[in-house]
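stage 2 :: seqdesign
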């Protein structure tokens, strides 16, 4: 049997069985559903996207996978070249992996070894945000800060090598003043914290973080697995504030196949580029640089520019703000909107208990969590479809 994610298997509701997916729609045997969350924010161009599907099929006719240990292939080389040209600054050095969580692990490992290679073994601490979520592997859980996901780590006690702070400049400055000489990295989901509650904060925080990281010689890591590819209204937040290491996943392949990349700048890469074998990055996921995934990712990058996704995300923000302007309910704590993300936070989780079925009956697939009802739909849906998603959200409160 399937062991499903984030579920108590004994009490879980039977999942909806999907028999077809096309554009922004999922199909069960008896329903057509607008996917309001893009399959965990990844299927940014919709399902069965022709250019991405064709790229995968054409590559599969040649070969599906070749390891990058001692071998190379054109799809991986092409994608690395595309990313180096496409990304800002000198984010030119691509280390591929098979999921966002693993790509974050690689980033954290790079940051620690960057200083070890320089003989600075005292820089053992990572600075992260309150309510952070960076994945469910062990190191990513340790820099995360959400007991609903990572309570299992409580058996180890408090991690002495991770410091969490709120998104205020005063807390940021205090943390660097106190721990600056011990830090190897500051890792953030820039502007939008996804699984931690769709929390949004100001760009000024990241601008100050960039200054402090430079002042204290600390690596700045942007985890843009969720925020990249337009979701914040920026192509990447890294276009506005430049990190030393950038992590991408989800929309990298248009959500058509799992793949991720950890991209380092020249300063980081140079710290590993040496005659000494012990200074190499000793990491190697089996399916890193998978040929099918690389072909899909190259097609996804081309689509992003062709469809002007950044402009579309900003247009989605305008529509969401228009449709939710003035909407209130005593059970609602806050409404937050940024780019291609709209979130209604309620005071109590029980308020959302019946929403998934309510939305299903009105042709929308949703997956609220805890006290967060949100939409992060594919960019290709039209204005009427987006309005319908938001209308269902509002209708739920009016009928309860």
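stage 2 :: out
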């Amino acid at each position: 049997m399937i062991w499903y994610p984030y579920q108590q298997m004994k009490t879980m509701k039977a999942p909806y069985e999907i028999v077809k997916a096309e554009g922004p729609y999922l199909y069960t045997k008896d329903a057509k559903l607008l996917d309001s969350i893009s399959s965990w924010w990844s299927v940014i161009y919709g399902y069965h996207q022709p250019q991405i599907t064709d790229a995968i099929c054409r590559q599969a006719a040649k070969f599906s996978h070749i390891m990058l240990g001692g071998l190379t292939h054109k799809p991986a080389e092409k994608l690395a070249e595309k990313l180096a040209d496409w990304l800002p600054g000198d984010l030119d050095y691509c280390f591929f992996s098979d999921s966002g969580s693993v790509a974050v692990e690689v980033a954290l490992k790079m940051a620690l070894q960057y200083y070890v290679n320089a003989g600075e073994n005292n820089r053992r601490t990572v600075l992260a945000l309150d309510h952070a979520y960076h994945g469910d592997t062990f190191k990513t859980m340790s820099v995360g800060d959400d007991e609903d996901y990572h309570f299992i780590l409580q058996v180890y006690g408090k991690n002495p090598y991770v410091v969490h702070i709120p998104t205020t400049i005063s807390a940021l400055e205090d943390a660097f003043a106190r721990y600056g000489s011990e830090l190897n990295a500051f890792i953030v989901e820039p502007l939008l914290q996804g699984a931690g509650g769709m929390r949004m904060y100001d760009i000024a925080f990241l601008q100050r973080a960039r200054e402090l990281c430079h002042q204290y010689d600390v690596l700045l890591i942007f985890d843009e697995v969720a925020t990249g590819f337009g979701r914040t209204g920026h192509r990447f937040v890294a276009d506005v504030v430049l990190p030393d290491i950038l992590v991408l996943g989800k929309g990298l392949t248009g959500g058509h196949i799992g793949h991720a990349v950890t991209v380092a700048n020249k300063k980081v890469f140079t710290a590993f580029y040496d005659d000494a074998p012990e200074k190499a990055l000793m990491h190697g996921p089996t399916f890193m640089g998978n040929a099918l995934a690389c072909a899909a990712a190259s097609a996804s990058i081309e689509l992003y520019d062709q469809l002007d996704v950044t402009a579309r995300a900003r247009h989605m923000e305008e529509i969401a703000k228009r449709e939710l302007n003035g909407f209130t309910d005593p059970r609602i704590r806050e409404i937050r909107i940024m780019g291609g993300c709209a979130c209604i936070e309620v005071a109590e989780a029980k308020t959302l208990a019946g929403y998934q079925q309510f939305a299903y009956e009105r042709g929308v697939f949703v997956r609220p969590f805890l006290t967060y009802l949100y939409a992060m739909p594919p960019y290709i849906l039209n204005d009427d479809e987006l309005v319908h998603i938001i209308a269902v959200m509002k209708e739920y409160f009016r009928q309860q």
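stage 3 :: structure notes
- The two ends are 36 Å apart (CA to CA).
- The chain has two domains: 20-49+309-399, 51-306.
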